[in-house]
Amino acid sequence: xxxxxxxxxxxxxxxxxxxxxxxxxxxxxxxxxxxxxxxxxxxxxxxxxxxxxxxxxxxxxxxxxxxxxxxxxxxxxxxxxxxxxxxxxxxxxxxxxxxxxxxxxxxxxxxxxxxxxxxxxxxxx
Length: 125
Prior knowledge:
By secondary structure, the protein is of the alpha+beta class. The protein has helices at 6-15, 22-32, 43-50, 98-120; strands spanning 3-4, 56-61, 64-69, 74-80.
C-alpha cells in the first residue's frame, strides 16, 4: 500500500486543491503518471535531474510533479510543473513506440497468413 511522508502530506495540502483523497491521488500518479521517457528535452532532463540518479521516481500527473522513493515507495513531495514547461503537451514524444508498431505489423502479417492457411485447407468429404 502506498504511503506518504509527513513532508509529502504537508505539500499535498498546500499545493494540490483536489477533492480526491490524497492517497488515492498519489496512487493514480504512480500508476498513470508520465515519466521522463515520455518527454523530450528540456522537460525530460528536468525530470531526470529531480530523480537524483536511481534513488527516486519522478512522475507528472495532472500538471504536478510527484517525487517518491524507489525503495520505500513513499511520496516525498509534490509541486506544480514549472511555468517554463507549461503546457507539457509541447514536450511529449510524438513518435509511436517502434516496438509496439513493429508488433502490430507482425500481428497483421501473421493474421493474413492464418487466413490464407484456413482458406487453402481442403474440405474433408
